Amino acid sequence: MQTARLLVGVLLLIAGIQPACSADKPLSFGVFPHLTARQTVETYSPLADALEKHLRRRVAIYTARDFKTFVERTRQGEYDILLTAPHLAWLARQDAGYRPLLKYAQPVRGLLVVKADSPFYAPDALRGRTIATPDPIAVVVLALHAELAANELSRNIDYQTTDSGTHLNAVMQVINGRADAAMLGLPSYRLMPPELRQQLRVLAETPPLSSLMYLTHPRLRDAEAQAVRKTLLSFATTPEGQAFMQRGGFGGFADVDGNELQAFRPYALQVQEMLRAPQ
């Protein structure tokens, strides 16, 4: 099943196709685009398989080509089950009524990395340099800009950024010598092949941030939402779920409360302003 899901899923992810409406329409599982399409399907297929088995309903994995598109699809309520960053979870609740279910227990950090043999050993050394970033509305990017500002480095004044689209692409800009440093999230860093991580050195990191959150659209009734929650918790206890958690460094599942989401309101409002700005 996983091979078939991978081949079909990657095509759907790239095309951005939603399944046709029908009585047996699959549950759409939207995963925010911090990984490539192939990585997304490979990583989340075991979880989708568990949901299919326990809910007795097909589950289709979707993402988007960029964060802006993903946020817009979320706002339109295209995903039944949503996995997204905490500041985007705040927007999902405000804009489309999504209800938080669970989050990954292990906090994440934003990492500022350079090549292993780089001459830079402190953030201040990047003054006048170029930093590759994944999508600029990623919470780890916003947090890292705040960290650099605390070191008296202002974006577009003391350093320039280049938007690479994904965490992996940002890292490759550094490895290939096209950027002096890169911003990325710790989960994406852990999922990279060891041969890539060996070529990098962490220069700075943010304080802990709440991890990715699972939410359900209000069109799923309470019983359906609770069935999804129960399935996720059950999956985490299986050998497949434990391998999934270990590979991603997710640390299992934990509850989400409203106060936690509220703490990300400032980042969410930044995202709103960025999305409204003319391109």
UniProtKB/TrEMBL annotation:
<keyword id="KW-0732">Signal</keyword>
<protein>
    <submittedName>
        <fullName>ABC transporter substrate-binding protein</fullName>
    </submittedName>
</protein>
<feature type="signal peptide">
    <location>
        <begin position="1"/>
        <end position="22"/>
    </location>
</feature>
<dbReference type="Pfam" id="PF12974">
    <property type="entry name" value="Phosphonate-bd"/>
</dbReference>
